Amino acid sequence: MQGLVNQLLPAIALNKLRHQDFQFNKRELTDEFEDVTILFADIKGFTEFSDKVKNPKKVLKMLKDLFEGFDKLCLKNKVFKLYTIGDCYVVLSFVVAERQNTTEEKIQEAKNVVNMGLEMIETISHVRKDYTFLNMRIGIHTGKKIIGGILGTHVVRYDVYGNDIRIANKMESSGEPAKVMISQSTKDWIEKEQNHNYSIVWAKEVQIKSKGKSTEIIQSYFINKKAYYQ
Q1: How many CA atoms lie within 13 A of 73 on its CB side?
Q2: In the record, which residues are listed under signal peptide (predicted)?
C-alpha cells in the first residue's frame, strides 16, 4: 500500500501527510512552487492505431509496455509522473520531500526532465519497429510559479495548475514528432550551467492565447545531446 501511495503523490506531499494532522475533507494540502519544469508527451498516431485495431487488448498492451518503460525512466531520471490521460504522459521535475530552491537544484531538475524526454524518444523509437506509424511529440517548459495540491475526498489525485501548465502543454502540441521542444525559460535554466552537454537550436515562435488577455509569444527550441545538430 505504501508503494502505491508513493506513486500517486510526490514526496513533498507525502512529507506533509506524515508531519501534520491532515484530513482530506479539509482540502489543506496545497503548495506553490517556483521554477518547476513540466513535461507533456503525446503519442502521435495513437488515435488512428486504436481506431483501426480490432483487438483492444493489443492497444492496451502497447500502451502498457510503453508506459512501464517510461515509469522506469522516471525513477532513473529522478522525476515524478504526475498522470497519464489516454496516450498523454505528464511529468514534473521535483521528487524530493524538501526543495531547497537553490539555483543548482533547479538546473538539475530541468536537466532531469530534458533527459527524461530524450530517453522517451529513444524508447518509442524501439517500439516503432513493431508499430511503424507511431511517434511521439514532447514539450517541456519551466514555469515561474505553479500551484499543486490534492483534489477530491474519496478519489484522491494530486494535480497542478497555472498558466505555465498550459505553456508546457502548448510546447508539446506545437512540437514535431521524434523531437523534444523546450521553451525559452527551460533553455535559460539549462544554459545557466557552463559546458552543458546539450545542443539547442531555435524551432519557432509559439502563440499562447489566454482568456481575456493578449496573445503571448514564446520562443521555442529543439534540444538534444551535444553534436546531434552539428
Answers
A1: 24
A2: none
Beta-carbon-side half-sphere exposure of residue 89 (alpha carbons within 13 Å): 28
Cα 92 from Cα 131, distance rounded (Å): 28
CA distance 115 to 110: 9
Return the ∠ at Cα 125 (arms to 143 and 45), rounded to 5°: 75
| CA pair distance 129, 158, nearest whole angstrom | 35
- Cell numbers linked to 1: 500500500
pLDDT exceeds cutoff 80 at 213: no
CATH architecture of 2-18+27-225: 2-Layer Sandwich (3.30)
Angle in degrees, CA 26, 27, 30, rounded to 5: 140
- pLDDT tens track for 114-140: 999 999 999 998 888 777 778 999 999
